[in-house]
Amino acid sequence: MQSQILPSRAALVDRIAMQFEYGQNLICLVGNSGLGKSYLAESFITDKYPDFSKAFVKLGAHTKDTELVQQLLENSFRAPLVDHKLSLSENFFVLYNEQPCGPCLWVIDGARHLSDELIQELQLLAKKAPDTLYILVTGQAPKILPEALDIHLESLSLTESRRLMAMFFPELPPSEDPIFNTFLSEAGGNPSILLEWQQNQHQLTLKSKQTMSSRQWKGFLGAFVVITALFLVALLYQKDLADLLRLQQDVGATSVEVLPEPTVLTTQEALSDEIAQPVSRALTERSDSSDTQLPLQHDVQSILGALTQGQAAGDEYQVEINEEDAEHTAASDRDAQGEPNASAAVAQVLTQPDISSDGAERTDINEEVETPEPVIITQPQVQPDPVSGLSDNAWFLAQDSNAWTIQLLAVTDESVARRYIEQHKLSQIRTAQVMRAGKAWWFVTLAPFATLDDAKQARTELPEAVLAGQPFFKRIVQIKQQIQQSQTQK
Q: 3.60.15.10, 3.40.50.720, 3.30.70.1070, 3.40.220.10: which CATH number matches 393-489?
């Protein structure tokens, strides 16, 4: 018998042996986990039936039926040739006929892992074995083997619990220790819990310390790698964002400031608020009084009154007569009766020097106006505007209409265009001068490009300061049309 076994457990071993001798060849030892079924089965196969051929097999979740059959037969016969196509009972009968094995004792620990086929084979051998065959099986639930005798393994009493602990722990707390007594009562006579007693700390550890599995370690390591990668990516993006902001600030500092367009007021715009309404009203009255033939003096006086009011309201305006006003004045200086027209008188007054606020000069003007003599104004010769030296209009008119340009700048001040060209010093610079609403415009372009793709490629090579002005693509045929319209307006 094993050296360390409690009296109650030794009595149970004797009881099992007695049941075998009474003719019960198949016994199942039933008990909860931790009560010591495996220890009791080892004690039984060690102490009892020394002359028997013995086989002890501990089953697990991955144990196959063929492995169990192989181990049972190898421990019962000498060098058996096991045919795995045959069942356990068939192999046993065949081997026994070849070489009788004598009485056998089989102990199988873990009956819950037995298949239904093996359970039937064990029951069959327990009944029809040609020689003595004792089979002891351990399990946690009764009736695992329907035809087996179930012997239940009970829990230890407090006395046996203390005695069991004394076998494994040389020094135990005294019986009066409340912590030790509480531990004994809470253990419930389960040997596996009793042997978990920690003698140095005098405390209970009901569950073994859980260690971190390799899968958990891999999970933590993967999470750490991901977090580190995200942190590095965030640092890189922060650096790139700082570089981008600094680059935008540099581009904004070096970008070309767009100057406001200079505004040039024509004579008609300058005098529109003070003079246009009185003059139009006087001309209307002149046309409506053709039947009554009102005196010319009345019309002229009304116009002069409007002119003097306009001059008093804003002496800072300088009146300029363009070519179209002069032609209109010369064409309408006489009416159908040969009398001087009111518009001709207005043109004469406008071409004279500015009238001061002195009363003597105003009197002279009134006397001249009162004289009904006709005034003849010679038509000035219209001279075309000279094309600026910065203009490449002739070059644009000679180019292919399907070609493309990149328009960089459009201003009404020629000096701004010159400064822009001198500042950037780009090749293929061409400047077009056109007229829009009576104002001269200068278009600074890069030309020519045969196709739009060539123009796009050239745009990507422009400096950042030029790209800040948002240059765009424009066909030469459009510039030609604007140049021709400007020549027509002149």
A: 3.30.70.1070
